[in-house]
Amino acid sequence: QVVNYAPFTLLPSAVPRALFEQAYAVQQDFNLLVDAISQNKEFLEQTLASTIKVDDFTAQLFRIYMQVLEEGLAQTVFLGINRSDYMFDCGLDGTAALKQIEINTIAASFGGLTSRTADVHGLVLKVLGKTKEASRLLPNNPAKGLALGIAKAWELYGSQSAVVMFLVEEIQRNIFDQRCVENELWNRDIRVIRRRFRDVFERGSLDGSRRLYIDNQEVAVVYYREGYVPQTYDQQNWEARLLLERSRAVKCPDIATQLAGTKKVQQELSRPGTLEKLLPDRPEAVARVRATFAGLYSLDEGEEGDKIAATAIADPERFVLKPQREGGGNNLYGEELRQVLQKIKDSPERTSYILMDKIKPQPALNYLLRAHSPLEVSECISELGIFGVYVRQGQEMVLNEAAGHLLRTKAIQHADGGVAAGVAVLDTPYLV
Ligand code: ADP
Ligand code: MG
User: Where does substrate bind (predicted)?
Assistant: First the structure.
């Protein structure tokens, strides 16, 4: 076992106050939107139809989704924890605009660790004699907000003796982030256990009313911190996933909500008219959500896809090519984007990707502090995430909140990658 400090910037980074507030203001809308998509079988079916023909991982998730629907849902309480990520796109006139990178609907991490970063940066500023600036750093406690959502779902499930199960990785690289949320639950006298897919396969079971049991304990809530990359799943782990999804336990997220977070869904949301259909009678929410969208393009077979593929091959610096994967390091940029797209442009494989306009933030100098790495000043860009939490019981939303923020900063030479990928580090916004 090795323990390292989590990587962080020496100094907080400047973030435009108006954009920060805009990101908070749209979070409840995104919660409603994700929840609406997760309940819309027709939309998910249509949107993912082309993707699941060529992407085995999405196809397998989709098969489980259909299988669970066919049997009928045993789950009646729904819990969503997501994180909507943004960059500040710098326009030609120098003004910055908030543009969504993606929304993470499964295993959105760093809510725990980042609940401590404002304290770290406050201390650094004080050491530097910047007491006034230190006092301006905002308090931020997503760990508490996420735990409140889990606790609400646990309560509505309605069994005092049932536990919350964190579904964790085989090799755990971010355990302390999870412990922050876990401890908030213990503080509320809610029992937490940690298990892997393998444990569920070996010792998990359902009773006659599809209550989930493991090691003689009933599970009220399954909080996934695992399960979003294909490498996780062998045959047994897929069986474990199916067992969990069939159960009455509150899954965070259920498989429909995981599918709602795919890049293909994100791209289809940007089509004119789609948001209006998903959020009828909420024109203001639709406008707030749409204002954060960057250009997103389908590579489905046909004229529209042919045209944008040709444009991207001619001018790859304008775009990012994204497959249906999570966790960082999967996107293609620049010359590599051009080569791959050139190779697959006439094959159905093309439809497993989407294209997105590349966001170009204004860089700033900072020091990135990482265990065992040399200290040097870097030109950096930041990505702001807002945590969203909601709980729905049947058709009634009983909780819908923004639960805090995360700022991650990386050196500009890395096109891709988050903190877990070893590229970005934890930061604190300093509003300007
Ligand atoms: P993942 O699911 O792997 O996190 P993302 O869509 O968040 O996928 O992309 C990973 C990283 O790539 C982001 O954190 C960001 O740094 C960079 N990135 C993604 N999309 C864009 C974009 N449109 N413009 C600029 N950078 C991007
Ligand atoms: Mg991301």
Answer: 83, 106-109, 172-174, 178, 225-228, 408, 419-420
Q: How far is the CA of 421 from the centre of ligand 2 (A)?
A: 10
How confident is the model over 121-148, as pLDDT tens digits?
999 999 999 999 999 999 999 999 999 9
Q: What is the pLDDT of residues 162-203, one digit of tens each?
A: 999 999 999 988 999 999 999 999 999 999 999 999 999 999
Return the pLDDT at 373.
87
Q: How far apart are CA 24 and CA 260, in angstroms?
A: 21
Q: Flag whether 352 is marked binding.
A: no
154: closest CA among 89, 65, 251, 59? 251
Domain boundaries, the chain: 8-294+359-431, 297-358
Question: Does the pLDDT at position 263 exceed 90?
Answer: yes
Q: Is 382 a catalytic residue?
A: no
Q: Is 381 in the pocket of ligand 1 (CB under 6 A)?
A: no
On whether the CB atoms of residues 403 and 431 are closer than 8 A, the answer is no
Which residue is associated with the tokens 């909500």? 257
Asked if 121 contacts 363 with a C-beta cutoff of 8 angstroms, the reply is: no
* Helix, strand, or coil (residue 40): coil
Q: What is the DSSP string of 212-262?
A: EEETTEEEEEEEESS--SGGG--HHHHHHHHHHHHSSSEEES-HHHHHHTS
Give CA–CA dist 70/199, Å, rounded: 26
Rounded to an integer, what distance in angstroms lies between the CA atom of residue 270 and that of residue 105? 18
- Provide CATH code, domain 8-294+359-431: 3.40.50.1760
Ligand 1 centroid from CA 328, angstroms: 7
Note if the bond before 374 is cis, omega within 30 degrees.
Answer: no
Q: Which CATH number fits domain 297-358: 3.30.565.10, 3.30.930.10, 3.30.720.120, 3.30.1490.50?
A: 3.30.1490.50
Does ligand 1 lie within 6 Å of residue 294's CB atom?
A: yes
